[in-house]
Design a protein that fits this description.
- The structure is a single chain.
- The protein is an all-alpha fold.
- The chain folds into two domains: 88-455, no CATH class; 473-590.
- The chain is 61% helix and 2% strand.
- The chain has helices at residues 2-8, 11-23, 32-36, 49-54, 72-80, 101-107, 138-143, 156-164, 166-169, 189-207, 214-234, 240-256, 260-280, 286-320, 331-345, 350-364, 380-402, 409-414, 419-433, 452-466, 474-498, 507-524, 529-545, 550-558, 569-590, and strands spanning 90-92, 109-111, 377-378, 449-450.
- The strands form two sheets. It has a two-stranded antiparallel ribbon. The chain has a two-stranded antiparallel ribbon with strand order 3-4.
- The protein starts with a helix and ends with a helix.
């Protein structure tokens, strides 16, 4: 009551104060208390003078910017839900510059509508909703920062724009430019930040130097590291796949910048997370299974990239200094080597393939849209890449019989000529194709039905044990248990499908998988139960097909992909004979 009397009895002072406030400049950054009372705030931080004097809780809020003609929900809808959706099949053709016709034919691949899962029939499907580049709303989104999922400090917008048009400038045209994986990452903060990190890698590979965007890259990398730490601190199991996804992105980026030690540390972290999750053994819902599959794919992809890059460094150092150690070279030296590797790949078109795969990589590190299921894949293009790589190595090894002093021949055949890049690119392309909900038609060509993790695990073993292209080192001992767990899981699933009526799974292709797993186990843990699983798969194939001789088994392996000049043929024979002998003994023992 006293305050009311004082206020009402002092009208002259009130009017004077009111005039003073009107003449003062408008305060946009005042504290909440002063704004609520319509009082001029001196904006001192952490507490303004009035709040200190009145012993009040002083709080500042970031002022909300009013967007001119931009509502985030409507912008997002224009990106993800255009009015017209075209469902006819499209063809993505990736053509490197200055390469032969056969090289072009390899990397061109056909794909039907990518999102045909039953749950989405009759609805708009995200991948089909990409807008024409000329009329894309992404440009309007970048002009309105409030419509984006994250802040865009420094040169973030310029970097994103570079990445968005990168495929146009690198000789990698898209026949159907309505589909673009960047059109929906802007709505997910974590996917968007990963896309900007990948954009930095693309710029380095393409231009040879990151100086223009170095600060921008570091800002987003630090944000990602901080985000992972915050997620880890919560111990929330629902964030498991998100953590693996973000750590895999960091690992891949460090690898591209030739930081082998940091990349290896993050890879070990991913393996520890996966091992811990597997040991919990909790029951999984259908959504949990999809998230687990994604986490497994991130592990396989990151492991493959790490082993491939490390093996290339080892091979290079071996040529110039037999005592060289990949862990002893400095990051600057490793980055210089990486730049020289990329320059050597440019004339063959290998660099163009890597850039094309990198441009699609945000789709790999993007969370799976609700309602979308991952399907089996046709491993045809992966097998095609293996066959070409194997053929190159066969030619070199035959040549070495007459020219034994050519120590660089195998190295040159494996890395700079582009065949390894084609195989790496298929990791990304096949992931995209697996999100269709069903296998696309083979159009009369040979089909190799498999799972994504199955074919990529098999490819790792093929490169290491059969063509001897990679050297995983000590990580092989740590990672091989989980890799074989994945491989066994996928082959169990494929073997069950083989017994179904009208199954289109190739028995010889499945045998090829089993044989690669058996070789790996023979060299690492030949008497384990896991090894017995692969021996059993070999024996079942031999029994169904009536094959008893190694020469016939070798011919079946060659029908998929196998070298003429097999460096370790004796091991192959031993694996075949061991599988036959063990299962013959087991069968005889079961008989009365």
């Amino acid at each position: 009551m006293i305050s009311n009397v004082t206020f009402m009895g002092d009208q002259s002072q009130l009017s004077v104060r009111k005039q003073e406030r009107l003449s003062a400049p408008k305060s946009r950054g005042g504290c909440v208390i002063c704004k609520r009372g319509h009082i001029k705030c001196d904006e001192a931080k952490p507490k303004c003078s009035r709040c200190i004097k009145s012993n009040l809780e002083c709080e500042y809020k970031k002022p909300e910017k009013k967007t001119k003609g931009c509502r985030p929900d409507r912008i997002s809808q224009r990106i993800i839900l255009p009015k017209e959706v075209v469902d006819e099949p499209s063809t993505l053709v990736i053509r490197p510059c200055n390469v032969t016709a056969s090289f072009d034919d390899f990397i061109a691949f056909e794909r039907g509508s990518l999102w045909n899962s039953g749950s989405l029939q009759g609805q708009t499907r995200p991948w089909d909703m990409m807008m024409p580049r000329q009329a894309s709303p992404l440009a309007r989104v970048l002009e309105s920062p409030d419509c984006l999922a994250i802040d865009m400090p420094l040169k973030s917008k310029e970097l994103f724009h570079y990445f968005y048009v990168a495929d146009q400038d690198s000789g990698v045209p898209h026949k159907d430019q309505r589909r673009d994986c960047l059109s929906f990452v802007t709505n997910n903060a974590h996917a968007f930040r990963s896309a900007l990190i990948i954009a930095s890698l693309h710029f380095v590979w393409n231009k040879g130097d990151l100086q223009q965007f170095k600060s921008t890259f570091l800002v987003h990398k630090v944000h990602s590291i901080r985000m992972v730490k915050e997620w880890m601190a919560t111990k929330d199991p629902s964030l498991f796949t998100s953590i693996v996804r973000q750590v895999a992105t960091l690992c891949f980026s460090e690898l591209c910048f030739a930081d082998v030690v940091s990349a290896e540390t993050h890879l070990i972290g991913i393996m520890s997370l996966l091992d811990h999750k597997k040991q919990l053994g909790s029951s999984l819902t259908e959504d949990d299974l999809i998230e687990q599959e994604l986490a497994d794919r991130y592990f396989v992809f990151t492991y493959t990239c790490f082993v491939g890059f490390k093996s290339r460094l080892i091979e290079y150092l071996r040529r110039i200094d037999p005592t060289g150690n990949v862990y002893n070279i400095t990051p600057d030296e490793a980055m210089t080597l990486t730049s020289s590797f990329l320059q050597s790949e440019a004339p063959t078109g290998a660099l163009a393939i890597k850039l094309a795969a990198l441009r699609l990589l945000p789709s790999f590190f993007n969370p799976m849209p609700i309602g979308v299921k991952m399907a089996d894949i046709d491993g045809y293009y992966t097998i095609l890449a293996m066959r070409e790589l194997t053929s190159e190595l066969d030619g070199v090894r035959i040549k070495q019989r007459t020219e034994p002093n050519d120590s660089t021949a195998v190295f040159e055949a494996i890395w700079p000529n582009g065949v390894a890049s084609k195989l790496l690119a298929q990791y990304v392309f096949s992931h995209t194709r697996s999100m269709s909900g069903k296998l696309p038609p083979s159009n009369g060509r040979q089909r190799f039905r498999t799972t994504w993790c199955g074919i990529q695990a098999a490819a790792n073993m093929y490169l290491h044990h059969v063509v001897r292209m990679t050297e995983p080192g000590f990580l092989e001992q740590r990672a091989h248990h989980y890799m074989m767990y994945l491989f066994q899981r996928e082959l169990t699933q494929l073997s069950a499908q083989l017994e179904e009526q009208d199954s289109d799974i190739s028995r010889d292709f499945l045998f090829w998988h089993y044989f690669l797993g058996a070789i790996h186990m023979y060299k690492n843990d030949r008497d384990s139960s896991t090894a017995e699983f692969f021996y059993g798969g070999i024996y079942d194939w031999s029994k169904v097909n009536g094959v008893t001789e190694w020469a016939d088994a070798w011919a079946a392996l060659r029908s998929v992909s196998w070298p003429v000049e097999y460096p370790d043929e004796l091991t192959g024979q031993c694996v075949w004979e061991r599988a036959r002998a063990k299962n013959n003994y087991a069968e005889n023992k079961r008989r009365p």
